[in-house]
Give the backbone structure.
Amino acid sequence: MRELKVDLGERSYPIYIGSGLLETAGDYVQKHGISIKSPLLVITDEKVAPHYLDTLLTSLETAGYAVASAVVPSGETSKSLKVYEEMMTSAIEAKLDRSSAILALGGGVVGDLAGFVAATYMRGIKFVQIPTTILAHDSSVGGKVAINHPLAKNMIGAFHQPELVLYDVDTLLTLPSREVSAGLAEMVKHGLIRDADFAHWCEENADQLLALDKDALAYGLLKGCAIKAEIVSQDEQENGIRAILNLGHTIGHAIEAIAGYGEFLHGEAISIGMVGSAKLGVMRGADASLHEDTKRMLKAIGLPTSLPEHLSTEDIMSAMMHDKKFREGHMIFIIPTAIGEVTIAKDVRAEDVRLVLEELKKEV
Ligand SMILES: NC(=O)c1ccc[n+]([C@@H]2O[C@H](COP(=O)([O-])OP(=O)(O)OC[C@H]3O[C@@H](n4cnc5c(N)ncnc54)[C@H](O)[C@@H]3O)[C@@H](O)[C@H]2O)c1
Ligand SMILES: O=C(O)C(=O)C[C@@H](O)[C@H](O)[C@H](O)COP(=O)(O)O
Ligand SMILES: [Zn+2]
């Protein structure tokens, strides 16, 4: 088992990464100050529940907790006001009090939804992240919790840090292959923004990662979580450097929203967005190899790198105006300058973005 720390003063918390952690989850939860006298609520989804819910409930009950559970439909559509309200009802019916905690058992959808319920139930109670996807090495760390609005991704949310992240890598073995690739998109992103060697390592070990090789996964997840934890520890609420974690997301979030949440998985949409950002980087003076290298790295893990013709450029342009990085009349873009290095640009011209979107439709 490996342990990392998200260093945020009194809101600091550990990330535990290892095998067999689900069976002992009750002990971890207790060790991290979650009251045994108040009920807990586990929020999970319909695909995760049959594999892992009983193990978690047994472990929590053995440790002495009274636990209720709520199961939401799988996929992005559960990050909605409707499902949020249903989870609030579950929390009230389970009689959660201000010393209770909500546990998110699942991928980024469950983590973002359950975290937002925890952030707002009785004005905020504790929560625990128990990630079960590769993508969630990113989403479970850092405290961004949110649901979507039909017009824009993650529009209704909060910053609410978990008490701990308990990452049992054994759970990843049941992931469908499309979800494996989508999750690896954020791993490659962590290399592209901060660590060229790691980005190259992801490409060189793509086959092992796609085959869920234990050693490759353990290294990749540890490295990805460490990069994320380091950035969040410097800038918890995205007043500066944290924005770089958004590489590929301005275009990616617009694709997710206009296609109707679910057609593109988050990792797939940001993969296309990262190729677009690399193109912008080249337009602004980076070496032309940046675009080819980025595309090759993403293709190696089975991700899309071109924009389907049926998505209208103008619809994407207007969806981008709702992005949280559109501020004071400017589109803020994370632009790579080389593999492993990015800048935060406030002067990206709309016509350049439009051109990049048109070129993304011609990518092979
Ligand atoms: N908060 C953040 O910082 C942050 C960071 C990155 C992404 N996100 C968000 O995360 C979401 C995407 O997360 P995701 O890719 O984990 O999606 P997800 O939670 O929908 O999980 C992907 C799919 O895999 C299934 N699944 C999950 N774990 C499984 C397992 N172990 N075995 C079998 N099936 C399993 C789920 O039911 C779902 O169908 C997006 O909404 C994105 O916006 C948030
Ligand atoms: O943690 C962050 O900060 C990120 O930007 C991580 C992203 O991978 C993630 O998708 C996040 O939810 C996007 O943030 P948003 O503020 O653009 O909604
Ligand atoms: Zn993301």
